[in-house]
Write a structure and sequence with these properties.
heterodimer, A: 165 residues, alpha+beta, 3 helices, 8 strands, globular, B: 112 residues, three-stranded antiparallel beta sheet, 5 helices
Chain lengths: 165, 112
């Protein structure tokens, strides 16, 4: 973590949220982390939630679907279709949650830029409306904020334990 | 309601002229409509319209100083937006820390 800048969040337009984050890894690996099921399941999930189904048909028009299992048997699922696949520089897909906590589907664009062994990932979510975008942050954030802090502690502890081993 | 305020703030911030007005007020502290209209090649009524949107969002207040009615920036709604974005950032930072650990491991499979 040391030397790694945090996530920068901006709102490039009325209906978009963009996030930029640098990783100390070649972009090939970062691209893989978003597109190879065996890797996705190892990091992509909120606190207390694990991916129990991860289907990725990595071709244009191909579908993806992730199913999470959470505390007390709670479930959550999202799916979409790949629109553009240009490894390791660009990935575009649609995203829609089964329980539609925001209306409609969003369009997710990942752009990966590599320099000096580091990868800068910029992810832009485009929502069908400004209201949808604003909803995105409200509902899951209110639900997840408190547990997010707990999970962060857990992740940091796990990383530390792994380093010491 | 927090939600409606955010909507109003984002709507107000969605226009480049209004963002420029806010930037100007942030820099100069206060300015009149005439002073604000000058750099925008825009009529005073047009600027007044923008100011109304900013006022509704609580981003600008109008004082009274004799016949002058200077506009001032109220940064509180901006703070709410910043807090809102900070929640999102935290959420993703948490995921990306897990990704950091995975990427470290992928690059160093021996566990170095």
């Amino acid at each position: 973590m040391n030397g790694t800048p945090g996530v920068q969040v901006t709102t490039p337009s009325d209906t978009e949220i963009a996030m930029t984050r640098a990783f100390r890894a070649p972009r090939r690996l970062v691209f893989d982390a978003w597109t190879r099921p065996e890797l996705v399941v190892r990091w992509y999930g909120a606190h207390g939630w694990t991916i129990v189904e991860c289907e990725i048909d990595l071709r244009v028009g191909g579908a993806w679907r992730f199913v999470w299992r959470g505390p007390g048997g709670a479930g959550m699922a999202a799916s979409g279709r790949y629109r553009e696949i240009a490894p390791p520089v660009r990935l575009v897909y649609t995203e829609s949650f089964d329980d539609h906590w925001y209306p409609g589907e969003s369009l997710v664009t990942h752009e990966l830029h590599e320099a000096h062994g580091r990868t800068t990932l910029t992810t832009t979510w485009r929502f069908p409306s400004r209201q949808a975008r604003d909803l995105v942050l409200r509902s899951p954030m209110e639900r997840g904020a408190a547990e997010g802090f707990e999970r962060l502690d857990g992740v940091l502890a796990a990383i530390e334990t792994r380093r010491q081993q | 309601m927090m939600t409606e305020r955010l909507d109003a703030t984002f709507a107000a911030l969605a226009d480049p002229t209004r963002r420029a007005i806010l930037a100007r007020l942030a820099r100069d502290g206060e300015a009149t409509v005439t002073e604000l209209a000058a750099p925008f090649a825009m009529s005073q009524p047009a600027v007044s319209k923008h100011l109304k949107v900013l006022e509704r969002a609580g981003l600008v207040t109008r004082g009274r100083n004799g016949r002058r009615r200077p506009c001032r920036l109220d940064p509180r709604p901006l703070q709410e937006v910043t807090d809102w974005l900070a929640e999102y950032r935290r959420f993703w930072e948490e995921r990306y820390r897990a990704l950091d650990a995975l990427l470290d491991e992928l690059q160093d499979p021996e566990g170095g």
